[in-house]
Write a structure and sequence with these properties.
about 280 residues, two-stranded antiparallel sheet
Length: about 280
């Protein structure tokens, strides 16, 4: 099939068919994901393993905060942090490396020779990200409850906050993964380009260290990126309300979470749409 014929075929595809093709693509992406042992370990299980390590190491340490009869323990505090890390690693790191590798090893070039619409390809990637991230989050919460006795919130509004921050973070990190995938110029450089950026953002965004203890200039830099706000939103949903005293300004700023994540999602979508290519540039 020639390039012109493929282009014509894509233009003649009905919107409903694009959606159906995208749903079918989700199944393909899930099968490919499950066959990659590196993805399962370093993006799916890594946040769970980190949580077990941090919670075990600091479970005997004094609580981070005690106010009256309420307290915030170390295992409690690291739960939303690892939840944020999981969404971030699955979206930015895993998706970014995955698409970069597919572009540079010829996979996308082969897909370019088929009538598969770009939107259907993106639906497949996003669907795989949503499903694996939900399973990962459920596993992390289960480990926290069963292994460390963490009490999850009972108020419906907290679960609603957790849900909208979670799904807005998924969209935000998915489009950023597509954007960052344009940077590596070869298969071997994909991980070398993406992982250092992801690791640096986690350190300055309150994932491994409490955000409030970081220098003010690092907080300013981190607040320009979405990960710090995802962690803030998850803490507001999962931690006792007294945990706000551990935050910068000693208050929850959920409107800012929505604004920052929404702005990054919109900007990332525009950049991803403009820069995405089936075939890498020379």
């Amino acid at each position: 099939m020639t390039a012109t014929a493929v282009t014509d075929a894509r233009q003649n595809i009905r919107p409903g068919h694009t959606l159906q093709t995208g749903v079918d693509r989700i199944r393909v992406e899930l099968l490919q994901y499950m066959r990659r042992s590196d993805a399962l370990v370093f993006t799916f299980l890594f946040p769970v393993l980190l949580y077990v390590i941090f919670a075990s190491a600091f479970s005997a340490v004094d609580p981070m905060l005690i106010v009256g009869d309420e307290q915030v323990t170390q295992p409690q505090y690291y739960l939303p942090a690892m939840l944020a890390a999981g969404v971030f690693l699955s979206g930015v790191q895993n998706l970014g490396i995955e698409i970069a590798v597919e572009r540079n090893d010829g996979t996308l070039q082969r897909l370019a020779a088929t009538p598969l619409p770009v939107l259907a390809y993106c639906i497949g990637k996003l669907g795989q990200l949503v499903i694996t991230s939900i399973v990962q989050a459920a596993l992390l919460l289960a480990v926290a409850v069963l292994a460390f006795g963490i009490e999850l919130p009972t108020e419906p509004e907290r679960w609603l906050t957790l849900a909208w921050v979670f799904f807005l973070a998924l969209v935000c990190f998915a489009v950023l993964g597509v954007v960052i995938a344009q940077l590596p110029r070869s298969v071997s450089s994909a991980a070398a380009v993406v992982i250092p950026v992801a690791l640096a953002l986690q350190f300055i965004s309150g994932i491994f260290l409490p955000f409030a203890i970081l220098p003010e200039w690092l907080q300013t830099i981190a607040n320009a990126f979405p990960l710090a706000w995802v962690g803030h939103g998850f803490r507001s949903a999962l931690l006792p309300d007294i945990a706000r005293f551990l935050e910068v300004g000693e208050a929850w700023s959920l409107p800012m979470v929505a604004i920052v994540l929404g702005a990054w999602a919109v900007a990332g979508s525009v950049v991803a749409a403009v820069t995405f290519r089936w075939i890498k540039r020379g």
